[in-house]
Amino acid sequence: MSPLSLHPTAHDPVQNMPEAIRRLGLAAMLDVLNYLPDTVAFVKDAQGRYLYANRTLLERLGRPSVAGMQACEVFPPPLGTAYTRQDAAVLAGQPPIGLGLTEHLELHLYPGGKAGWCLTTKRRLGEADAPAGLLGLSRDLHLPRHDSGPGSGLAAATARIASEYAAPPSVPELARSARLSVTTFERQIRRVYGLTPTQLLTRTRIEAATRLLAQTSLSVAQIAVDCGYFDHSAFARAFKGAVGLTPSGYRAFAGGEAAKR
Question: How many CA atoms lie within 13 A of 216 on its CB side?
Answer without folding.
Answer: 14
